[in-house]
Specification:
- The complex is a heterodimer of chains A (128) and B (499).
- Chain A has 128 residues and is an all-alpha fold.
- Chain A is built from five helices and no strands.
- In chain A, helix 2 packs antiparallel against helix 3 and helix 3 packs antiparallel against helix 4.
- Chain B has a domain of 158 residues.
- Chain B is 75% helix and 2% strand.
- In chain B, strands 1-2 form a two-stranded antiparallel sheet.
- Classes of the chains: A mainly alpha (128), B mainly alpha (499).
């Protein structure tokens, strides 16, 4: 139990990943597949962001008194602020996720126009 | 132009030209193709310039914006990716020239959009190859993938659905890669590949690193259509426009194989991938399954293009198996096969594109009598076929030779058997095609009464046949200069510590 509680953020990520993966593979409706894909991508983003957090009052990485002559007196302690790099990386990943969703939605629109449905089995029946 | 800036120019020139092209395309469709060709000529020039600099001076490390690694992103070019860069840019250029008539026929309304995506796709692939940063690689992987989704989707009727499946599978692959990189970042705090290579050896015992490696590998395998993760590939490539499949089929899987080699040897190390981890043999067996399944599935197709896509699946097995056999000969064969397979696949898909252009279909029945009506195209196709089967002096023979040599040295007889089996199946496959195209009469639906007369020659336009001939000639030339390529380039691309 402690194993689960202590690392709860990772467990949430794993559960979300599995929900996303399940929806992408098992769902018949293309929109549901797409939603599964979004959940999957969001889980990865959550994973990165949660690894940046630190316990014990770490804040945003703005260094007070970080300029002028006093700068040297206030050494920067990594423990005092949250690691900003994963957040920055995830901004890029969010952009990628949004554009992937956009492309996928555009494809679904074309599929709907062509076949009049977004249920995969009905589309496959029409193809045959 | 200073050759020191080549690594950034070969990506920046096509990237910036994509914007110019999109604007120019609003005014006149005719501006599109020249811009693409000029940009890609620049890329080809820069890639070969980079490769020759590497041959003389060793690995190039280019720091973007002069930010020192590991904080800044850097581009690293060594013998391995110098070679892959030349392949990607050259295939991009040749396909661009070839694509003119085909795009005009298949997508007359969308020429500017097609070429904008086309050049972005080449940019993405070049970027994947040149970058030395694990996260940067993810972003470029997605740039290449997103453009490929759109380019594949504009094809035939069924293309949209198969492209949607590719979106789903491709995203799973990319997310697995991203997760794996995240695992490495947690443990090391670095994303630079060379820096990771220095930091990781102390952590090889850690489970986090092993899981991270496995996740990256699964992600890359999805992207390179390694059996049993190949499901998205055949339909997506079959129903795509000819120009797209000519670009995507030779390059996407090969660049992914390159990424796999890069991760295995440059981020991790040969000791880790082959000695610390115990699943080396499982992957060679998977490669055997890929080769056999790909060949057998190709055998049951009645659609020419779809048959070729299954051949691609089998070829991926060659390269993956060669790399994981873990000896010099096999890895040489795998790297050489990246070059050779790119050319062979290009040759065959270009033929398929010409057949689609002339007969409006790619079923076997559309091939009837083509040796008489299109002798030049089919001669070049025959060279591609011989190379695919591995007949000397075409290049396909030499990479297969090295792979078989590697299999013998590793005493992995089943892999060797699979290679021979696949060559045999390729012979059956393509002789069936040649038989249909050579002996069966041309079935022109409005031809009647002149059964006995030979059909007139009705060759495809020169802008399609000439690039095809260049590729076919390259197959033979690369084959003849194989020893030079191996001793000057590939030999140095194999990491130390492999026997």
């Amino acid at each position: 139990m402690e194993f689960i509680v202590a690392k709860y953020n990772y467990w949430i990520v794993i559960v979300l990943l599995m929900i996303g993966l399940y929806a992408m593979i098992a769902k018949n409706n293309l929109i549901k597949k797409l939603i599964g894909m979004c959940i999957f991508q969001t889980a990865v983003i959550l994973f990165y962001v949660s690894t940046a957090a630190k316990s014990g009052g770490a804040t945003i990485p703005i260094i007070a008194h970080g300029h002028g002559h006093e700068a040297a007196a206030h050494a920067v302690h990594a423990i005092d602020y949250v690691n900003p790099l994963p957040h920055v990386l995830m901004l890029t990943a969010i952009v990628v996720a949004v554009s992937t969703t956009g492309v996928a939605l555009a494809l679904i629109m074309r599929i709907y126009k062509r076949y009049g449905t977004v249920e995969e089995d009905e589309i496959l029946e029409q193809i045959k | 132009m200073s050759s020191a800036q080549f690594p950034i120019l070969l990506v920046a020139v096509p990237l910036l030209s994509a914007f110019i092209l999109n604007i120019a395309g609003w005014f006149n469709k005719k501006y599109c193709l020249p811009i693409v060709i000029v940009a890609l000529v620049g890329s080809v020039y820069a890639s070969f310039g980079t490769l020759f600099t590497v041959l003389e001076e060793g690995t190039i490390r280019y720091r973007l914006g002069a930010w020192l690694p590991p904080f800044g992103i850097e581009y690293v070019v060594d013998h391995l990716n110098g070679l892959v860069l030349c392949i990607v840019s050259s295939v991009g250029l040749i396909t661009a020239i070839y694509s003119k008539r085909s795009v005009e026929q298949e997508l007359p309304e969308k020429v500017p959009q097609f070429y904008t995506l086309y050049i972005l796709l080449v940019t993405g692939l070049l970027g994947i190859t040149v970058t030395g940063d694990a996260f940067n690689l993810y972003v470029l992987l997605e740039i290449a993938a997103l453009t490929a989704y759109a380019l594949l989707a504009v094809g035939e009727d069924r293309a949209v659905l198969s492209s949607f499946h590719y979106v789903i599978m491709g995203t799973i692959g990319a997310c697995f890669y991203l997760l794996g990189v995240g695992f490495l970042y947690i443990k090391t705090g670095s994303l630079n590949m060379i820096d990771l290579h220095g930091l990781l050896p102390e952590l090889f015992g850690s489970n986090v690193i092993v899981v991270g490696f496995a996740m990256i590998m699964i992600g890359v395998w999805v992207k390179m259509a390694f059996f049993p993760l190949h499901g998205w590939l055949p339909n997506a490539y079959t129903y795509a426009p000819s120009a797209t499949s000519c670009l995507v089929a030779p390059l996407m899987t090969k660049v992914s194989v390159y990424v796999m080699i890069r991760i295995m040897f440059s981020v991790f190390s040969p000791e880790f991938t082959f000695e610390v981890l115990a699943f080396r043999h499982i992957i060679v067996w998977l490669a055997v399954a890929a080769i056999i399944a790909g060949s057998l599935l190709a055998l049951v197709q009645t659609d020419f293009k779809k048959m070729l896509t299954y051949v691609v699946v089998a070829e991926v097995g060659y390269m993956a198996g060669g790399v994981w056999l873990a000896n010099t000969a096999a890895i040489t064969g795998a790297i050489l096969h990246i070059l050779n397979d790119a050319l062979m696949t290009l040759c065959l898909f270009m033929t398929a594109g010409i057949i689609v252009y002339k007969t409006k279909g790619h079923q076997f029945e559309h091939l009837k009598g083509l040796y008489r009506t299109m002798p030049f195209t089919m001669t070049a196709f025959t060279v591609g076929v011989l190379s695919m089967m591995g007949v000397p002096p075409t290049c396909g023979f030499f990479s297969k030779w090295y792979l078989i040599l590697g299999a013998i040295r590793a005493e992995h007889w089943v892999f060797m058997g699979a290679l021979l089996f696949s060559s045999l199946v390729n012979a059956v496959l393509f002789f069936r095609i040649i038989e249909i195209a050579f002996f069966e009469p041309f079935t022109d639906h409005h031809a009647h009464g002149h059964d006995h007369q030979p059909e007139p020659i009705d060759e495809a336009p020169l802008s399609m046949v000439v690039p095809l001939w260049i590729v076919a000639a390259a197959l033979v030339i690369v084959g003849m200069y194989t020893s030079g390529i191996v001793t000057k380039v590939i030999q140095f691309a194999i990491p130390e510590g492999i026997v």
